[in-house]
Amino acid sequence: MKLHLVTDGRRNIAELIKIITDIHTAADAFHIREKNKSAGELIELVEALHQNGVPKSKLVMNDRVDAAVLSGLHQVQLPSHSFDVKVVKQRFPHLVAGCSVHSVAEAIYCAENGADRLLFGHVFQTSSKEGLKARGIGALKEIAESVSIPVIAIGGIVPAAIPEIRDLKIEGAAVMSCVFSSDHPYHAALEIAEQLKGGMGD
């Protein structure tokens, strides 16, 4: 299973460059989810990561289609409040467009209108969604069985939870807090990656 890492919006550009450069070999993709940074800062981040050896093919721009296009990225992740995936694919057919969904209806709509993959969550309880009930493994399974495109699980993904999702028909898991809030991001990412690829000791 693939590991997608999602930035948490709490780091400055220099910190993000260091962390992602240090850990990029442990993950399959990095979602740049920085709501409070300008398009210029996002482009600066992408270029710095590229210069530091992080392949652009591993970078996914969250929401900011403009920053993705101008920085030469080929992958975007569209939150539910963002552009309609149909419009994005019509205007930028070269982009791989993922959609963040929270229901079967949303998943089917996005899949039928050009989405290349889905992120569904939050699957487990997570501090970043405090007060909101987790949607659970049953809902994740239903989503995965409702569409023919890849599905990535997100929300509360920690190493101990991975055996619960590893046998589902999903492509992988997306992780935010467990890695980007860790004092040792590389080791945190490596532990999750090992679990996703078969696990040790479970």
Automatic annotation (TrEMBL):
Q: What is this protein called?
A: Thiazole tautomerase TenI
Name the SUPFAM superfamilies on file. Answer: Thiamin phosphate synthase
Q: Which PANTHER family match?
A: THIAMINE-PHOSPHATE PYROPHOSPHORYLASE, THIAZOLE TAUTOMERASE
This protein's encoding gene: tenI
- According to its UniProt entry, this protein's organism is Metabacillus idriensis
Q: In the UniProt record, does the keyword Hydrolase occur?
A: no
**Molecular function terms from GO:** thiamine-phosphate diphosphorylase activity
Gene Ontology cellular-component terms for this entry are:
cytoplasm
Q: Which GO terms describe its biological process?
A: thiamine biosynthetic process
Q: Which residues form the Thiamine phosphate synthase/TenI domain?
A: 3-178
Pathway terms, separated by semicolons: Cofactor biosynthesis; thiamine diphosphate biosynthesis
Enumerate the UniProt keywords alphabetically: Thiamine biosynthesis
